[in-house]
Predict the 3D structure of the following.
Amino acid sequence: MTDPQPLVVVDNLKKYFPVSSGLVFQKKAGSVRAVDGISFSIAKGETLGLVGESGCGKTTAGRTILNLYPPTAWKITIDNQELSTDSKPDLKEFRRKTAMIFQDPYASLNPRWTISAIVSEPLRVHKLFKTEKERTERVNHLLNLVGLSSRLINRFPHEFSGGQRQRIGVARALASDPLFIVCDEPISALDVSIQAQVVNLLEDLQDQFGLTYLFIAHDLSMVRHICDRVAVMYLGVIVELAERNELYENPLHPYSQALLSAVPIPDPKRDRERRRIILSGDVPSPINPPSGCRFHPRCPVGVERCNTDDPQWHEASPGHWIACNSVTSP
Amino acid sequence: MNNISAPLLQVENLCTRFHIPEGTVYAVNGISFTIKEGETLAVVGESGCGKSVTMLSILGLIPLPPGEIVTGKAIFRDKDLIKLSESEFEHLRGDEVAMVFQDPMTSLNPVLTIGKQITETLRTHLGLSQEAADQKAVELLERVGIPEAASRLGNYPHQFSGGMRQRVMIAMALSCNPSLLIADEPTTALDVTIQAQIVELVLHLREQLHMTIIWITHDLGVVAGLADRVIVMYAGFIVEEALVDDLYENPRHPYTLALLGALPRVDRRRDHRLNSIPGAPPNLLVEPQGCPFAPRCTYVIDKCWQENPALIPIAPEHKMACWVDTTTTSNGS
């Protein structure tokens, strides 16, 4: 993972949530290892996809990277500013450079605030403009950027449809001129015909401002469309990371293979022809993840040592990283 | 694919509205379709297109008021379902027609054991004793692939995962060997690998039990490998209906074309931007006039604003509701 000049470097990010037992005298009973040591880097202007099933820790990873959840362990470099468990980070500066677009456009906008108040909040927090007039101009500009009329500035969120709300969320994310945006399933709550609108908007904004995206999603077709590189997560760890066409055409990890084979194709003939790998069972609990390779209880090709040995993260071919004992370099 | 024969269900000019304080919701606006015995019919459309309301109307599950079934017939084996009384419906539902809902988390009762919930149907409809019903419940759970079924009868819904709960729902739906299974977005709340498991299970059961299935979804991908015939709905109207291969190879209605164009493909390299559909679905509180898709349509002509095109056959087994022939007219955008 040596990009020429990565904008974002995440090194061994961990997030454990404590689990307690007992109603009155609570004891710490263990922890949910939601994210258990993930590392990657993203170049400037690049989109990295983070995919996986629900409960694999992809959303937690996104939130922990932006310090919305205090990380258990982290070392993150964004635009040469390093933040880690040991240092006392300047979070305010960090948060000006980063932003997040949330999944649920109904829950992520304050229903009692006007659009103007919502979109200008980052401007007020970071004291980016001196006067109210300048702020209003900036908000108008942002709304135009995301394809909304600036006449709507004094309306409330309930007056907008899901797609329009998501555009408001995008405008808010852009307010402080961030370099890096975490998009946490920005389209999964929207109808198919609206999804394409929002995806095209995100792409246009990336071209215009050179934005860097971490795109978290479970829709693998959309991820192939929008991302440059894709990382596959399973139970808190990244199991495979490669350039998009390499990953989709030549998946090496048995989990990625099963995941990709399960994605429906809107073409009856192709869909009937292809062979699905049906995984048995469900994702195990992250409180007590399986020993060795976390995927071994469901793995169709696992060998004896997968039960005990942690798989090594290695480069199977240039730019194609994988953590699996059964798949070695060709 | 299957032995397709006589129509099992024939819906004619169904029109369902809801009277709410804000006005009247024009949910389903006069739709007609048939499903033949042994066939799998997919009903595709975005949220609010009326696909679920159609099925709920047929099954007598629309609360009246605020709902009103203005016109329509639904002939199921010589019986008009729209005219049935509540007690006749109780006999029909679960016995001859069963439904599986979208959210397996909320459609099971959280305070009753799985065993209790399955055997209740069996005892009501088949008049079995508790022992016989328990035994049958174990068979049903084994059939839908739940391991150690006998020991899981005493478990509560929260002790099952999402995929397992959906299997339990399917087991309950199958308990009286229904001739028609209506599945309302049964895999939407599930992850892709679990979705693949459920689709595989339904395909297997269809083969085994010769069931007729109506599969409601917003996902054009899922139905491609599953359905025999597809109906595309928009704003309470059927806009296109065709055999599955025909629909995906020769989509004719501008809305179907646009939907397929807006879908990225997992099996293809990216070659262009997505074709987004401008605008948003219409407000159902406004009485429909003209073609409901006209404001978002790139093929729109003057006539579209005045008169709503009827669903007419354009080829064998292929119907469409549009004034424009999209195969010869160039896209206006």
Observations:
- The longest strand of chain A covers residues 27-43.
- The interface with chain B takes residues 53-54, 161, 163-164, 191-197, 199-200, 203, 218, 220-222, 224-226, 245, 248, 258-272, 276, 278-279, 282 of chain A (CB under 8 Å).
- Chain A has a mean pLDDT of 88.
